[in-house]
Amino acid sequence: MEKTLMKAEQGGHYCFKKTDNLCDDCCCQQSSRLGMSRLRCAFRGIDVKACIFMFAIVPTFILGLYLHGQKISYFLRPLWEKPPKPFHEIPHYYNENVTMENLCKLHGWGIRDYPRRVYDAVLFSNEVDLLTLRWKELYPYITQFVLLESNSTFTGLPKPFVFASYRDQFKFVEPRLTYGTVGGRFKKGENPFVEEAYQRVALDQLLKIAGISDDDLLIMSDVDEIPSRHTINLLRWCDDIPQVLHLQLKNYLYSFEFLVDNKSWRASVHRYQTGKTRYAHYRQTDNLLADAGWHCSFCFRSISEFIFKMKAYSHNDRVKFSHYLNPKRIQRLICNGADLFDMLPEEYTFREIIGKMGPVPHSYSAIHLPSCLLENADKYKFLLPGNCMRESC
Ligand SMILES: *[C@@H]1O[C@H](CO)[C@@H](O)[C@H](O)[C@H]1NC(C)=O
Ligand SMILES: *[C@@H]1O[C@H](CO)[C@@H](O)[C@H](O)[C@H]1NC(C)=O
Ligand SMILES: *[C@@H]1O[C@H](CO)[C@@H](O)[C@H](O)[C@H]1NC(C)=O
């Protein structure tokens, strides 16, 4: 105690010692040499702190904001954004040994004399494997598969007509297929959601060409949002189902090994109304049918498909650094179930954000998956638990 006081009394020496390895030029060292008074030196002491602040803390803070700004704003989201109105979740009943009449009754619906026709319409980018699983899963109950493809990604990058080159692999749907292409607009610097909306309008036209009519069922979903077969069978047989119904899907990431949550809701089924029904991928009603299928995001076979998707995707601004596209990094994150864009979970409460931080836990359940996946487990191994290594090209 006394020693410190002594040193403080001596002013110059104290400052000298404390500062000389931190901030040589701007501090007391010089001032004592120039014979400045103790008072001046004390002021200089404040300058030292200001120096440290200006040259160390401020840049660190700015760098931190730059690197983690998105994370900080996502973390604080519960403060600036109210959660959306909750859905009205409709309980979903199914067992293969229960008759359709009883299943409809359990949902409070009647049964029809004959099933509705069903149209499955998707915008296709490059998801060849998931498209196969989707179409095999839904095949028994679909009247027409409608697929539209552009030679532009949503972010305005040119892409080949991928489906056209894989069409031979889809012979099994050929008699029920309406395939259309649309030329990209290639507007530089435009919001990707504009190109997406443009392509969805083209899909409405293609549905008319495919012959959709009133009260046919129309599935609106991305390729990777796959309704389960029995869900579509239920909806085509039951009377009085809601005009528009969202489907709650299990959310998987990279493969069926990483179950993120059970809350995917964007996919929807519509009883088509001419002149009224428009293809959309946002919230259109409060009705949500529980446990109606799978949403497998970034479920690709090869690393190059991951890279393409990261660049092509509507949120390509999330690729903040070029090293995010490094194949080794991508492979490592896939095996860990970690986020490719180094983002925080998009949730509305602190509890959910914190609960979901860090990698997605591994899941070892492979029951209740699309039947085509299990029947062809060799071909689709990368989608099953314990097989995170991807083809490198
Ligand atoms: C379920 O249905 C199958 C035929 O569809 C029948 O063989 C089987 O006995 C049924 N099981 C039960 C528990 O009713
Ligand atoms: C995209 O397709 C349209 C029509 O099919 C064609 O006119 C255009 O040249 C294509 N653009 C590119 C970049 O491939
Ligand atoms: C999702 O639902 C299944 C039951 O269908 C349950 O076992 C699982 O724990 C749920 N997962 C999450 C992440 O909520």
TrEMBL record:
Listed transmembrane segments: 46-67
Keywords: Membrane, Transmembrane, Transmembrane helix
Listed InterPro entries: Glyco_trans_17
Gene Ontology biological process terms from the UniProt entry: N-acetylglucosamine metabolic process
GO MF annotation: an example: beta-1,4-mannosylglycoprotein 4-beta-N-acetylglucosaminyltransferase activity
GO cellular component entries: membrane
Pfam families: Glyco_transf_17
Lipoprotein recorded as keyword: no
Record's keyword annotation contains Transmembrane helix: yes
Protein name: Beta-1,4-mannosyl-glycoprotein 4-beta-N-acetylglucosaminyltransferase
